[in-house]
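INPUT
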Amino acid sequence: MIVEVLCVGNELLSGITLNTNAHWIAGQVAKAGGTVSRVTVVRDELGAISDAVKEALLRRPDILVTTGGLGATYDDMTLEGVARALGRKVMLDDTAVEMLKNSYKRRHLHYRINKVRLKMATIPEGSEPIENPVGSAPSVVIEDAGVQVFCVPGVPVEMKAVFKKHILPLVKKGVGSFISKEVNYFVTGVSEGMIAPALVKIVDSNPRDAVYLKTHPRGYYRKTTPRIRVHLVCKGAEEKEVAGMLARISKQILKDISRLGGKVEK
Amino acid sequence: MIVEVLCVGNELLSGITLNTNAHWIAGQVAKAGGTVSRVTVVRDELGAISDAVKEALLRRPDILVTTGGLGATYDDMTLEGVARALGRKVMLDDTAVEMLKNSYKRRHLHYRINKVRLKMATIPEGSEPIENPVGSAPSVVIEDAGVQVFCVPGVPVEMKAVFKKHILPLVKKGVGSFISKEVNYFVTGVSEGMIAPALVKIVDSNPRDAVYLKTHPRGYYRKTTPRIRVHLVCKGAEEKEVAGMLARISKQILKDISRLGGKVEK
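OUTPUT
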């Protein structure tokens, strides 16, 4: 289950807004056992959005999620960019107009549905609108040659609501049974460089998608004794198999640490 | 002055590490008057890195900055990915080896320069190593058909040190004289949808790169009165011209807000 994320917004490329959306989505997908293969961030420019969508579709992820650019303002152009990438038009969608009206009604907002607001209900031909349970702009989903393209809002609380309800279940269904177990060893006296060959051996002798093994530097004890964290994650479909793999690899790592003169903090 | 950023690391795509590097670089480039056109994040996979570098080079930014994947461990493969994208080999570089030795000496680390550590001094043919003033792994710079490709570490403190010393001066030089002035209006009684047409007019009647005008929702007063922030940035080469533009556009915005029945908070 491969997911790509495309975030749209000048504010993400000018140091104004930290891209917590991509971080949150990546965490949700990883926890469900899926893989975010790439995150792309582009500016509010039609050509840039359309190019990025086209490129992502060529890589054939299972799901492409775009965030941002669904609002009423002149620089919100994600849906037009997606439509262009798919060689389709955007069209005013009656269901999306109803969703927009509902969203105002639900929040007791007395807005007229003017031309500017109708932009939020103007979606790519063949796409399906998804109600925004928090704000106004509907999300949309459209399928292209096996890729489910979801366009969700950039406002985090709106994005999260749509993601949890409509995208996460798809990810979980695609992944199927999924167990993940992990352990961290906080080590003193072994550097990343010292333990690297041993870890390569472990990674090379196990199924690629089942083992995630990485070291992280933690500075130095008394300035010259290296400290690292060794992070091991094992994944699989069966509880017993994953637990067994974690136990076996952990034992090997502890043996290597000891052989290299390192100590594991309790 | 167009800058692209390519961040490498599984931890950035699994919800483990928030991508503050891209955010910080974008802020630095924007403050200097440059433009970050795209940020891409890929996993620690040779093919993914190499593809992303190739694609970025085809877009011909002035500068491409890669972050991460320069360390000694098996999953650090940015330099190999860059080399592959450029159709070059990686080679052990004597200057880089000296830099590595210096970095250990400076920090009183008694490391042997073993095969694993020499990986950090094995850089693309034709590239120039840049000393890491904080950690170990040298950065590199290599030119490809007018694009300056910088590969810097993923550890934020190391990345920032190299960026400030070697990349930011290039951005500033490329931008030349640059003045940016901005103002924010905190408005009550006007929604994004209401003011959108007026803002489109302003943006359309000014030079595209000189004016950044955007609204941000701020919820509702007593649940139904919309509140927004209007953010205006004017940019140019001359102090006087930019100040004049900011004053002229501000006046127009305040007129529009008032016409729409909105109030600006003092």
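end of record. Chain B touches chain A through 63 residues (CB under 8 Å).
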